[in-house]
Amino acid sequence: MQFDTKIAVVIRTDLQAWQKLNVASFLTSGIAAAFPACIGEPYEDASGTKYLSLIGQPILIYGADGPALSRALDRALSRGVTPAVYTEDMFKTTHDAANREAVRAVGRSELNLVGIAMRAERKVVDKIVDGLKFHS
Fold it and tell me: What Gene3D superfamilies does the database record attribute to this sequence (predicted)?
């Protein structure tokens, strides 16, 4: 199935494995919150056990270094795409309000990005992540 939109997550490649997983989880929750229509129906197995709904389209995960992450953020914003962001300072916090304060305390050009996520028209996302490789 071909979707009109694309979801992309870009994660800094030099993070520890647990950090990459944490960042991906938080960033995709931002996509789900901003685009509730992308959430599919709840799951149910053959035994009748019910499970939570998931985002109903593929999520592409890219890897990048710091400068490439900043470039992708600039490309997204210049195209009118509002991304979810995760900064290195957020690893030191323990709750959502502190995360927002950590981002608010730093100007955009000084954000120590470790990940961004976005959902937009396919061609727009393709231009934002142009030159990035899938995360390995």
Answer: Bit1
